[in-house]
Amino acid sequence: MEAKTRTSYTEYKPEEISEFKIKDEKYSVIGKSVPKMDGRVKVTGQAKYTGDLKFPNMLVGKILHSPYAHAKILSIDTSAAEKLPGVKAVITHKDVPSLKYGISPARWDENIFCIDKVRYVGDKVAAVAAIDEDTVYKALKLIKVEYEELPAVFDPIEAMKEGAPQVHDEYPGNINTEIHQNFGDVEQAFKDAYYVRTDRFVGNRTYHAPIEPHSAISIWEDGKLTVYCSTQSPHYFQYYIAREFGMKMGDVRVLKTFVGGGFGGKLEPTALEFAGAVLARMTGRPVKMFYDRAEMFTHNRGRHKVVMEITTGVDKNGKILGVHANFVQDGGAYTSLGIATAYYAGAMLTLTYDFVNYKFDMTRVYTNLPACGAQRGHGAPQPRYAFECHLDHVAEHLGIDPIELRLRNARRPNTITPNEFGVQSCEMKACLEKAREISGWQDKKGKLPKGRGIGIATGSFVTGAGYPIYRTDLPHASAMIKVHEDGTAATLYTGATDIGQGSDTILCQMAAEAMGFTYDNMKIVTADTETTPHDFGAYASRQTLMSGSAVKQAGEEVKAQVLEMASVLMEVDVDNLDCRDAVVYCKSNPEIRKTFGEVARTFFVKRGPLVGRGVYAPPKLGGKFKGAPVGTSPAYSFAAQISEVEIDEETGEINVKEVWDVHDCGMVINPALLHAQVHGALYMGMGETVWEEVVFDNKGKLLNGNLGEYRMPTSLDMPKIVSELVESSEPAGPWGVKEVGEGATIPTMGCFSNAIYDAMGVRVSSLPLSYEKVWRALKEKREKEGIQK
Amino acid sequence: MYLPDFEYYAPTSLWEACGLLAQFGPRVKVIAGGTDVLPKMKQDILAPEVLVSLKNLSQLTDIFYKKGKGMVIGARATHNNLVNSPALQEKYLSICEAAHHMANNQIRNMGTVGGNIVNAVPSADLPPILIALGAVVKLFGTDGERTVLLEEFFTGPGKTVLKQNEILTEIVIPDQSFTGSTYIKFGLRRSGALAVVGVAVAVSMQGDICKEARIVLGAVAPVPMRAKKAEELLKGKAVTQELLEEIGVCAAGESKPISDIRGSAEYRKDMVRVFTKRALSKAIKEGHC
Amino acid sequence: MKAITDKNGVKRYLITLNVNEDGYTRVVKANTTLANVLRDELDLTGTKKGCELGDCGSCTVLLDGKPVDSCLVLAVEADGCDIVTIEGLAQNEKLDKLQESFVKNAAVQCGYCTPGMIMSAKALLTRKPRPSEEEVREAIAGNLCRCTGYVNIVKAVLAAANEQ
After folding, report:
1. What pLDDT is stored for residue A4 in this prediction?
2. What is the pLDDT of residue A20?
3. Which of A34, A462, B116, B185 could form a disulfide with A633 if both were Cys (CB 3.0 to 4.6 A apart)?
4. Using the beta-carbon criterion (under 8 Å), do C86 and A712 form an inter-chain contact?
5. Contact B288, B205 (CB under 8 A)
């Protein structure tokens, strides 16, 4: 053990500014790869996630799940469980509100516990709270439930047929959502087209699989409920928990400590929050609920399986004249965020390429499988896969290079999509050209040795949703900044939720930049409905733009007050003052200056708290047709991805050699964190493209609900990743920012599939593009060629 | 996750351990590295009332070459012990490579070769190469010691000839005259993946004539199996690409894979063809055991 | 190993663990995993539970110097062993070079895999101070990360190695 080094403590003296020069660079804080706010606590193990928290007198609780995909509940006998020493409460539907809930207001179809029947293997039946984990598990085994098994349906096409088992009586034919959108005149476009082509693809169920399982701790005090949970949005949790229990929102406090990844799966409250709250109330003790990994898989809310048919008509130069997308989604047993997913699936197809005539038909169907919801890219990745593969076939038919075809159709800035999304900044063309250049496309396409191929795909995503998940006129984001009394620190209060992407860091950078302060002295309090101002949370890649806008405004308000105070102190006209790096200086003579700290302290002494407030609401966006709000956004990111693959002809094994991602995401607040997001998004896209698939047996039971058989790529499976950007600035975003968190997941599936087609001349039209599927496609190709010989 | 309750013993001698096995009968399970037993208990596949730990039986971890006997591998040697063993690296590098394929680094630091063999999963990575090299296993029980050819040790998925009161103590590779051996694993990702197909071969080459060969297939039958017809086809022949292709086809024909979530039977059969070819090429080319 | 049986017939075992150079004596049931003892008994919650089946590596600790999945080690099996967890890496205020490198190279996003990842990397750099990229990837192949694609993690480990 090393000898302790003595830390020396000296009296703190406010900094003297000796050398001060106004920097040449445009920005002081943003645009720099500052280290993360929470880096140190995470690398030391100090960071506590919900499952790490302990409270005095705390109980542990878990949910009892249904072993059947579809069954009537005849009886539940909890007596044996209740008698087990250490068990403090056992609850079923009789003990909880029967109000149906769900994150989609249009479809509140879920109960805390099933009342008359269970609808998927894993559906919620009861819950237990006991003194320790061991006892809880034993108690769960003692709950006796009598079921009457019902016929179940596991395929969306089958579920729509006459006579199929009905998952919800209120939704005949198992139709959860039906969408028919029609813009321009697609029929005419097809008539005018030089070439019309239809292709069919299938995207399969995958799962977010965040490494941290869901957890929630409920604590009651005097009629007030506090819930610590692994959440992407304390606000939505607070709103829906208050609604479920008929409480004032002010009496429900939802907060998070650290979250180990969300990716869309932690956006809605789960049985852990609802049942946990009831158990905590009944026992009068804090209750920690959690899911283990297998239960994470059955809780799901992951990517939908989708059957896709795309038809495109092009002119002889490959210009797209019209597109018809006809999809069917398997939504599982409940809606979750699925209605939005269903709309997003079609809405996002109009972004990267400019065409006027578009028809979108979608049916989201109920089945007796775990419910699907939002997963990184929210509905857009698989349709993008279908569209990008389809376009490569169009290009091949016309004898046009795939990148050239895309350049001819690339969206330009300041245009409007047929489904009425206004796009301001758009560097689609620049992304394509740069991707082509850095990948060496011209030297590789058609020139690689046998078994190697190169493929391209584009993608685009919203930067925050134009409308919140439930109908409300609340602004989308708000923020407060409190400068410390002696000006040595400033605390940013925001409801924005850091789930690992780094929003705490970049929002502090933005606050410091807007105030003229320093990043190093920023503190942050986030995602606590009791102390931080409202924000919708981390989803739809909204926080950099939306939360950032509110933060910028708050910072500017602080700066204005500081400059005003400084003008009094320094006897300089306020228009001749500026503040950067915590130094207030006279613009015409920078020798005249004071520290931010000194001015702030004086402000506090004379006027009281130095506080800045900001708020953001997007303008009214979108058209007036049914479903118009979904897909609206103040701004859109654009990306082009190219991958080079090598296929083992005999086994179908796909060896991804290198991936190039070029993003148009506007101004970059923190380059290191941005590229890290691209790496991660691309990694998830990769996993879903080749390896990941949720598989069930013929009774609806998960076959691979573990991280051994649900194959996420390991460090040994990764290719070289090159992440680049193009210059871009978005008028709707503070300092020109746009999203990146979900954008890089979207092009990957199409990009890989196109690369495989280039390598081997075979198209695998269902995800994942497993080795066996490639092998089979190669086999069929050889047999076809053999017959033709 | 939930581990059911059990009693725990950590005997200090083999004799004491076997005594416990005899005492508790079918209610007991042996635990070595725990990487097979504990996951099974957590997933409701196993629920032994008693676990007998081998952790105090330190004499079972050694790996050494004994003249006249052969290469001795203690049953409690972990997979990483095998990977890093200087004795194995010198004489049987193929065993080190096979051990390296198993799961991931953390599991290899705990999971033992004895546990892996006794667990008898058809897709296990060590048995095929050990069988190809003619390994025998020593079983110690209350009735005494016996030696079984590893090839005859497995009787079905999860089933072996190990008696209820016996413990597998060591694996011995007797001296033989193979000039090359190797194991190729085909999994669906590069770490933490069970074999879809595993092929181990051992060859005795004289120039380009193959005097003798052993071909052992994993994951494509209820137990690791020798492709004896394919071996016969190779015996005494000059090795050419065409011959290797023929042998691959023959071995594929002998295999009996099932379809499961990792692959269809049809795919696996063809992969037997491919990897038998590749394993033979590799073993011949590399020229080491 | 001493065992005591309470009045309900529940048997518990007396174990001593050397964790981060401190000795701890505890009484545990046989079915207690090392991960649970560390987290629940010793309040060392840096070691995480991500899957409890040895697939994700977020529970990785060093057991007698070797990285293992503590969710698959019984506490009774670890009796008398030397264990190092993430909390044991920093020396007083000073972070280990790996920890600093992870922060510096943006290798931490949600951070849940980070403790286990660092322990695996620490074990590697201890036995092989100058690993190749392939060796780094090999060493952390049993640690799943959902956020980073491993890009910056590999970068951080190599950077820490080069600094030594």
Report:
1. 56
2. 66
3. A462
4. no
5. no
pLDDT in tens, A580-623: 999 999 999 989 999 999 999 999 999 999 999 999 999 999 99
**ipTM higher than threshold 0.90:** yes
Judging contacts by C-beta atoms under 8 Å, the chain A residues touching residue C158 are none
Give the predicted TM-score (pTM) of the model: 0.97
Q: For A260-313, how does the pLDDT look when each residue is reduced to its tens digit (9 = 90+)?
A: 999 999 999 999 999 999 999 999 999 999 999 999 999 999 999 999 999 999
Q: Measure B81 CA to nearest chain C CA, in Å.
A: 11
Q: Would an 8 Å CB–CB cutoff place A85 in contact with chain B?
A: no
The tens digit of pLDDT for each residue in A360-374 reads 999 999 999 999 999
The structure tokens listed for C120 are: 């695996």
Identify the H or E element spanning B279: helix B265-286
Q: Do C151 and A676 touch (CB under 8 A)?
A: yes
Q: Which of A9-23, A53-67, A178-192, B33-47 has the lowest mean pLDDT?
A: A9-23
Cα–Cα–Cα angle for B189, B195, B200, nearest 5°? 125
Contact A492, A511 (CB under 8 A): yes
Q: CA of B271 to nearest chain A CA: how many angstroms apart? A: 7
Measuring CA to CA, which residue among A711, A710, A767 is closest to residue A298? A710
**Taking a C-beta distance cutoff of 8 angstroms, is the pair C58, C113 a contact?**
yes
Q: Which chains touch B (3 or more CB pairs under 8 A)?
A: A, C
Contact C96, C89 (CB under 8 A): yes
| 3-class SS of residue A575 | helix
To which residue do tokens 């990008």 refer? A388
* CA of B69 vs chain C CAs: smallest distance (Å): 31
C36 at A interface, C-beta within 8 A = yes
Interface with C, mutate which of B29, B105, B112, B116 (most C CBs under 10 A): B105
Q: What is the pLDDT of residues C56-92, one digit of tens each?
A: 999 999 999 999 999 999 999 999 999 999 999 998 8
Q: Supply C162's token pair.
A: 């080069």
* Identity of the residue numbered A634: P
CA distances from A563 to A488, A589, A592 (A): 17, 15, 13
Q: Show residues of chain B in contact with A711, CB under 8 Å.
A: 188-189, 193
In this complex, the residue of C29, C53, C76 whose CB is nearest that of residue B42 is: C53
- The values of phi and psi at residue B21, to 5°, are -60, -40
Closest CA to A392 of A655, A768, A643, A725: A643
B259 contacts chain A (CB < 8 A): no
Which residue, among A49, A297, A712, has the nearest Cα to C47 in the 3D structure?
A: A49
CA distance A317 to A327: 28
CB contact under 8 A, C45 and A48: yes
φ, ψ (nearest 5 deg) of residue C27: -115, 120
Give residue-wise pLDDT tens across range A646-691. 999 999 999 999 999 999 999 999 999 999 999 999 999 999 999 9
Closest to B107 in 3D by CA, of C48, C54, C82, C141: C54
Give the torsion through C-alpha atoms of C60, C64, C66, C71, to 10 deg.
-30
Cα separation, B92 vs A16, whole angstroms: 70
Each residue's pLDDT tens digit, A493-519: 999 999 999 999 999 999 999 999 999
Structure tokens at B206: 């004289």
- Helix then strand then coil, in percent of chain C rounded to 5, is 35, 20, 45
C22 interaction partners in chain A (CB closer than 8 Å): none
Instruction: Give the pLDDT band (50/70/90) at residue A2.
Output: very low
The verdict on a CB contact (< 8 Å) between C87 and A500 is no
Q: Does the beta-carbon distance from B42 to C55 stay under 8 Å?
A: no
- Choose the closest CB to C72 out of B7, B34, B191: B34
Cα separation of A643 and B178, whole Å? 43
